[in-house]
Amino acid sequence: MTARLRSMTVDDLPAVLALEEELFAPDTWTAAMYRDELARTDTRHYLVAEDTVSGEVVGYAGLIAYDDEAHVATIGVAGKRQGEGIGSLLLDSLLVEADRRSPVVLLEVRADNEVAQGLYRRRGFTEIGRRRGYYQPSGADAVVMKREKL
To answer: What is the pTM of this model?
Structure first.
């Protein structure tokens, strides 16, 4: 794997939004949503994975963390770079931060995204429920997963 992690900045938003479109259309976040998240530095932790050679943003992830629980808000890896361990690197970094801040981590993942669910299960997450029509505007269902602090 030839990627390194760093904190996301507003300068990364064009690349992040392009990945959002590739990975999650039509259920994408907007630039305004990301700007709002990045401004909440007390409870948010956003990262990008960049190629160590080209500097291209090839993945990103975000965490919302409070004293009582944390939420994996988003995680995505460029389709051409999936399977290289970048998603694992991003998730593991979020979980280190989550464990520092709170005892429980929650997330929602598309019910049809078996690959992501497998990654989360390998990191100690278990399914605790489903949310029908969670993703908008597609109406796709979400699996709710939880991980207790190790």
So the answer is: 0.92
Is-contact 75 20, C-beta < 8 A?
A: no
Please give the Cα distance from 124 to 139 (Å, whole number).
27
Give the C-alpha distances (Å, rounded to integers) separating 129 from 3, 94, 111, 145: 33, 22, 11, 7
| 150 residues of the chain, pLDDT tens digit each | 689 999 999 999 999 999 999 999 898 999 999 999 999 999 999 999 999 999 999 999 999 999 999 999 999 999 999 999 999 999 999 999 999 999 999 999 999 999 999 999 999 999 999 999 998 888 889 999 999 876
Question: 50: Cβ–Cβ under 8 A, 6 or more apart, which residues?
Answer: 3, 4, 6, 56, 57, 58
Could you tell me if 41 and 100 are in contact, meaning their C-beta atoms sit under 8 angstroms apart?
no
